[in-house]
Design goal:
By secondary structure, the protein is α/β, with parallel strands linked by helices. It is built from 11 helices and 10 strands.
């Protein structure tokens, strides 16, 4: 192992449409991928049989550093909330901003949102019987954790998330997997002998990557693997439009610069892959970093809005007090989006989503 790595020890989800769309109505038609990453295998010591200890006490998006989580959230003025159409909703406070999270809205695109997690899993060692214990940080309702179970059917798989409601949902859907409520900023409370530590679409919500990522790596035994993916949204035009609208009338009086969604990454105004490599490489024996752009074919501009109602747009919409303001925000967003992402001949809009990956052998 290189360097001194460790000290041992322990529609926006407001239901704008009258009915919940079926899977066929909401799943994107196709997904194109443009990728670049180094093609070299992990060295054989990645498959070394581990020492094994007990666990001491995630597809979805998780919120690993949130507070004030509750499942008795008011409807926030949205339409369509009614008996027989329940949604998992949480009140989430990130810094000074509080918004609600709807897992059902997010999971309308579960196939596409799970694709990066599947791609990351493909970079993990094959199941040769030596992988005994794996951790999924920011497991949400357990979709990504289930991929680890598929890959390592005989291993002990543990998923953690800061949301008690998400963890409860994961336990119901995946009873063969262990889940615990645990904040990603307190990983030092976990064991440091995991064979695999995995996190998917989580760290963009977690501040101070220079502290959190090294702590994540310390949870991995010598010879084990840490694997991570999260979106590079800081400079994506869809997200800059959202931030621009937040400080323009009439939305500024409700959102403003203080209410703009926080994104956590290294590199200031630009995502810096080099900074991540320089952070990870000295703490590991072998590090790989790469980026992949996923092109999602969505059903027109409404499909793009529907996608972001469950993720990037939700913090903004949650701060607007009326349906009229939320719909005005969405219309203005679409008008600006037309200049960036044109419709295809068949009415499809191709939405690019750039994501950062790393795999580190410890």
């Amino acid at each position: 192992m290189r360097g001194s790595r460790r000290s041992r020890g322990s529609r926006n989800g407001f239901d704008h449409s009258p009915d919940v769309p079926s899977k066929d109505e909401t799943v994107s038609v196709m997904c194109f991928i443009v990728t670049r990453w180094p093609r070299f295998p992990l060295c054989p010591s990645a498959y070394r049989k581990p020492s094994f200890r007990g666990f001491s006490q995630k597809d979805g998006i998780s919120f690993p550093y949130v507070s004030n989580i509750t499942d008795d959230v008011p409807d926030c003025g949205g339409r369509g909330s009614r008996p027989g159409n329940p949604a998992i909703r949480l009140r989430i406070k990130v810094g000074g901003m509080t918004f609600t999270w709807d897992a059902k809205q997010y999971l309308k695109f579960s196939d596409q949102r799970t694709r990066p997690s599947r791609d990351l899993c493909e970079r993990l060692p094959a199941d040769d019987g030596t992988i005994r214990k794996a951790l999924d940080i920011g497991c949400g309702p357990g979709n990504s954790t289930a991929l680890l179970r598929e890959r390592y059917p005989h291993a002990r798989i543990i998923g953690i998330d800061s949301s008690e409601t998400m963890v409860e949902s994961a336990r119901v859907q995946h009873p063969d997997i262990e889940f615990a409520v645990q904040d990603a900023t307190a990983l030092e409370k976990l064991d440091d002998d995991f064979d695999i530590v995995f996190t998917n679409a989580c760290l963009q919500w977690v501040p101070d990557h220079r502290t959190v990522i090294p702590e994540m790596l310390r949870r991995v035994r010598d010879g084990g693997i840490a694997a991570c993916q999260f979106p590079e949204t800081i400079s994506q035009r869809t997200h800059t439009i959202m931030r621009e609208l937040a400080v323009e009338p009439p939305f500024d009086q409700y959102i403003g610069s203080a209410g703009a969604r926080p994104y956590c990454h290294l590199g200031g105004e630009r995502f810096d892959v080099n900074a991540y490599y320089d952070l990870i490489a000295p703490l590991s024996e072998h590090a790989q970093v790469w980026e992949t752009t996923y092109w999602h074919a969505l059903a027109g501009y409404e499909g793009v809005v529907e996608w972001y109602r469950g993720t990037g747009m939700r913090p903004y919409l949650s701060q607007l007090p009326t349906d009229d303001l939320r719909e005005q925000y969405e219309r203005t967003f679409v008008n600006r989006l037309r200049a960036v992402y044109p419709e295809q001949r068949d009415g499809t809009v191709l939405l690019p989503m750039r994501r950062f990956f790393f795999v580190a052998q410890m």
